[in-house]
Amino acid sequence: WARAVRGLLLDVSGVLYDSGGDGGVPIAGSAEAVRRIKASGLKLRFCTNETQATREKFVKKLQGLGFDISVGEVTAPAPAACRILKERGLRPHLLVHNDLVPEFAEIDKTNPNCVVIGDAAENFTYANLNEAFRVLIGMEKPVLISLGKGRYYKETDGLKLDVGAYMKALEYACDVQAEVVGKPAKTFFESALAEMGVPPEQAIMIGDDIVSDVGGAQQCGMRAVQVRTGKYRPCDENHPHVKPDAYVDNLAEAVDIILQQL
Amino acid sequence: WARAVRGLLLDVSGVLYDSGGDGGVPIAGSAEAVRRIKASGLKLRFCTNETQATREKFVKKLQGLGFDISVGEVTAPAPAACRILKERGLRPHLLVHNDLVPEFAEIDKTNPNCVVIGDAAENFTYANLNEAFRVLIGMEKPVLISLGKGRYYKETDGLKLDVGAYMKALEYACDVQAEVVGKPAKTFFESALAEMGVPPEQAIMIGDDIVSDVGGAQQCGMRAVQVRTGKYRPCDENHPHVKPDAYVDNLAEAVDIILQQL
């Protein structure tokens, strides 16, 4: 599975580090693995559904944890959503994390004609959910844009519901289907590949999410490897629809194998 | 549609009154209509998905609004759920409104092996949703029991997301299907009919919810009428799957027509 590769896409949370209220902790060997990828000459893209912070803030946190990463190397849902909003003249009501709001600074938010939902975390209050619902149900044709559709993720203090669960709540209440920006949307992986200038058959996605990372990348024609860190659970190995090209214990092991094949 | 009827099932919120933080306001003519049904000799059952209060408290509120109603006339989801929990030896983690908790007083809640979700309203916090999710995902075979699956309802201060939306969030996150107690579950309508001693073909359901009230009752072989009060919206009249046997402006009009046919 590791042959003829020119570019790697790395999921971040659960692959580089375990996130948490305290900022998170690096996964052993991952910072070193990123440095080895860069030294090898392979193209590299960090491909995250993180929507709890601007890319600037997100990258700063990872640098603080010892990772060699810059804003220009990150593919994330909020900038992708902004492109869609501008193209289609959509003015969003935002149900997102406070720290993500600056990504939408240049977008007109008056008199909303769509709702954008991200991983709002503590902003997923009863009042905020009702408000987003009322904006949606009040539209003649409700438009709901979701920054990802993850089910849940792991923080240092336990599992948390991810944006996908709240997306489903609004979808059901308003009888609409959300447009998903971010993994596993095909357009999202395609942007990351284009940014690297690598065709899908020469790229490998490495992630901890069997559906969003592995399934999504494979749908795009890439190979995909699941790490046994982050939200990985042993029952993922019996997933009814998705079978990774390989399992590895962690990012360091994946990079060992890939670099041996170069 | 109003001929050969021996029993009526009335939805409560949106038919008798519009609920709200202030206790709600009666819908004009509804209190009088209930009195006329009782005077006519027709059997009567109040069939509600209300799970924000015990039946005792709920009935007291309605009496205060001028309705002739008693606890013994009410079919509601919580007692139905308690029967299921006892039969199957299930110990619930409750995500319900504080005022509903006394309905579960006799149920063992230690070391939970299922989650029961109701319309928890202000209790639908980010923390409580994550907690219910963690209990569910921690089970070998998650069991989720939902007291209804309504999409939303109208209170005096606006539309609110109903239990169905939060049920969908947990279903998606845990990849399970909830067992729904309450309308539109067939067993729920069948209990109400049994309590009246009336067969479905001699009963009419009157409700404001096109799916839960009208669709559910029709699935049971009853006739069903939609009132143009409560959560009714004009677009309900173009519903793709459900067509009521009749529309009426309000309960009073339905009762006028039914009593003329006796």
From TrEMBL, chains A, B:
Name of this chain's protein: Phospholysine phosphohistidine inorganic pyrophosphate phosphatase
Function as written in the Swiss-Prot or TrEMBL entry: Phosphatase that hydrolyzes imidodiphosphate, 3-phosphohistidine and 6-phospholysine. Has broad substrate specificity and can also hydrolyze inorganic diphosphate, but with lower efficiency.
Family recorded in the similarity comment: Belongs to the HAD-like hydrolase superfamily.
GO MF terms held by the record: inorganic diphosphate phosphatase activity; metal ion binding; phosphatase activity
UniProt keyword annotation of Nucleus present: yes
CDD domains linked: HAD_PPase
Presence of keyword Metal-binding: yes
EC number: 3.6.1.1
Compartment(s): Cytoplasm; Nucleus
Organism of derivation: Eurystomus gularis
